[in-house]
């Protein structure tokens, strides 16, 4: 996978769970269509009367997730920004998503405002293969998320983590190491290690 393939996968799934933060700091979620993806950016729109619009205008932090039939998931965490050329973008979105014409016929489409996500972290997670596969990316000014677990030099080589790992993604060595692309982030190795040699990466 690469960044554009992840974004394209979201576009093909189209209906995504889309979370914002409300005026009380609580998460709010709803289904939102991804309308376009171009140049490593995601585009969507919403109407000016909706709570979703006001939450975006107050605090652009958003999180999106979706899964396809093959149990492949994409998660995006980033910043949504309103686009200034409203008529251009809404007309373009309607050209690429013709079903929108039955929801917002004729001039009513201009109650919609276009938004773009250009700065974000993207995570691809494939539960449909064995072992599982994951990969992280950054777009715009954001770097890929550093999550999960790493084995430090305090490792004494006992092998307990490897024997307990449900994905068999720990390899021998000095120290032992985790194949990050196949790790569930379950934390079992962390809990089992007798030497406290496994460190959890910061959740960003
Ligand atoms: S359980 Fe801890 S000490 Fe033992 S091999 Fe794994 S990381 Fe090293
Ligand atoms: S977090 Fe879970 S899946 Fe990942 S290496 Fe540790 S035990 Fe294995």
Supply the key terms.
204 residues, Pnp Oxidase, Chain A, Alpha-Beta Plaits, 2 domains, eight-stranded antiparallel beta sheet, two-stranded antiparallel sheet, 12 strands, elongated, binds iron/sulfur cluster
Question: Overview of this structure, please?
Answer:
Helix content is 22%, strand content 36%. The chain has 204 residues and is of the alpha+beta class. The chain has two domains: 3-139, Electron Transport, Fmn-binding Protein, Chain A (Pnp Oxidase, Chain A); 149-200, Alpha-Beta Plaits (2-Layer Sandwich), CATH 3.30.70.20. A hairpin with a 4-residue loop joins strand 5 and strand 6. The radius of gyration is 21 Å and the shape is elongated. The mean pLDDT is 96. It binds iron/sulfur cluster (2 copies). Residues 151, 155-161, 175-176, 192-193, 195, 197-198 line the site of one iron/sulfur cluster. Residues 149, 165-167, 169-170, 178, 183-189 line the site of one iron/sulfur cluster.
- How many distinct helices? 6
Bound molecules: iron/sulfur cluster
| Name of the top-level CATH class of the largest domain | Mainly Beta
Alpha-carbon distance between the termini?
22 Å
The largest pleated sheet is described as: 8 strands, antiparallel
CATH topology of the largest domain, which one? Answer: Pnp Oxidase, Chain A
**Order of helices and strands, N to C?**
HEEEEHEEHHEEEHEEHE
Rg, rounded, reads: 21 Å
Portion in helices: 10-25%
Assembly classification: single chain
CATH superfamily of the largest domain: Electron Transport, Fmn-binding Protein, Chain A
Strand-residue fraction? 35-45%
* Model regions low in confidence, pLDDT < 50 over at least 5 residues: none
